[in-house]
Amino acid sequence: QVQLVESGGGLVQPGGSLRLSCAASGISGFSTYAMNWYRQAPGKEREFVANINWSGSSTRYADSVKGRFTISRDNAKNTVFLQMISLKPEDTAVYYCNARRGGSDYWGQGTQVTVSS
Question: pLDDT tens digits, residue range 96-110?
Answer without folding.
Answer: 999 999 989 999 999
